[in-house]
Amino acid sequence: MYAIESIHPVPAAWLRASDLAPFVPAYARRLVERRYAANTVRMYVYGVAHFARWMRRCRVDVRDLADEVVQRFIDEHLPRCSCPSPVQRCRHQVRAALRQLLITLVDAGVLVSSRQPDAIEDQLAHFDAHMRQAMGLAETTRVRRLSVVRSLLQFRLTGDAGSDATTLPSSDELRRFIAQELSRVSPASASSLAGALRGYLCARQRFVARAAGMPVFATPAGGALSLSGVHHVFARLRDQLGWRARGEHARPRIHDLRHTMVVRRVQRWNEDGASIDHAMFWLCTYLGHANISDTYWYLTGTPELMESVGVRFERFVLQGSNHE
Fold it and tell me: pLDDT tens across 273-283, in order?
């Protein structure tokens, strides 16, 4: 067992005497296959050895391991740990090491995951299809990105909060996951990590679960947009793009953007010779007007449209006079 032999004899003895000993090779192999640095693998094995000693002293059976048991070890034992050195006591390292241990035990059939393993595979299948069909990425790139996303989803399932893989990760979860990954990858791999996460989060918004009563314009998590949030984003975009007001107001408003969209849309319909009456019906529905007369106002209350409609009317009159 190279993984056990690579660490100090004292923690190595703890591992050999524990029920975890048969699973250490698979555990180390899992980390190596996922390109964990050699030193990180050793530190993780030290963390597992520490946990193995605690399990034996507390008479915890390997088949009883769960997130709650790991959390008890981290919260209750680590702060008061008096185990002989060398021993891994870093909460962050130990939590990450034991997270991978639980996954290894699930893969070995010793534990049964109660945290929606199918949800992870479903997320990965959606993301892979998006990368293949919408982005046209090569298989090697897709495999690398899927590996990162799988680690993220497993990190969330076995983390402190026990998150649901069907929801979007919070900013705090992302920060903790990125910190963990950056501690074990080379600087050259950091851009690949960022690309995988960015691609997943963008794609994830495309297949967020829909539910009855869900708002049309929703946040990535499926909730309704707040009015203050909309105005804040609009103000930031307005300043970044350097928009300038042309009317009575000091700065462009969201309503001004809506007004401009309607004017340009009706102008385009008019230039294309579309049926304005028919188009107004759909525009009224889109704008949420209670009365279609409010929508027709744009034809009479906007100089640009009045000019377009006037030109069209003049053309109609002239065509009629030619037939007389």
Answer: 777 777 777 78
Concatenated DSSP letters for 163-186? --TTSPPPHHHHHHHHHHHHTTS-
DSSP state of 205: T
What pLDDT does residue 215 have? Answer: 63
d(C-alpha 208, C-alpha 219), whole Å:
10
Would you give the DSSP letter of residue 224? Answer: B
Same-domain check for residues 103 and 132: no
Q: How far apart are CA 223 and CA 139, in angstroms?
A: 34
Residue 1 has what pLDDT? 47
List of residues 6+ apart from 57 with CB closer than 8 A = none
Query: Is the residue at 134 inside a domain?
Result: yes
Who's near 307: CB < 8 A, 6+ residues apart? Answer: none
Residue pair 173/181 in contact (Cβ under 8 Å)? The answer is: no
User: Could you tell me the pTM of the whole model?
Assistant: 0.41
Phi and psi (nearest 5°) for 218? Answer: -120, 160
Domain tally, the chain: 3
Which amino acid appears at position 78 of this protein? Answer: L
Considering the domain architecture, whether residues 103 and 16 belong to the same structural domain is answered as yes
Asked whether residue 288 falls in the same domain as residue 198, the answer is no
Residue-wise DSSP of 121-160: HHHHHHHHHHHHHTS---HHHHHHHHHHHHHHHHHHHTSS
Q: ∠305-302-284 over CA atoms, to 5°?
A: 80
Look at the block and give the residue holding tokens 């408003």. 253
Kindly tell me if the per-residue pLDDT of 320 is higher than 70: no
For residue 217, tell me if it sits in a domain. Answer: no
CB 87 within 8 A of CB 50: yes
pLDDT tens profile 143-170: 889 889 988 888 887 654 456 666 778 7
Six token digits for residue 306: 């009045």
User: Mean pLDDT over all residues of the chain?
Assistant: 79
- Integer angstrom CA distances of residue 216 from 87, 206, 224, 284, 287: 53, 13, 8, 17, 13
Range of the domain at 196: 117-204
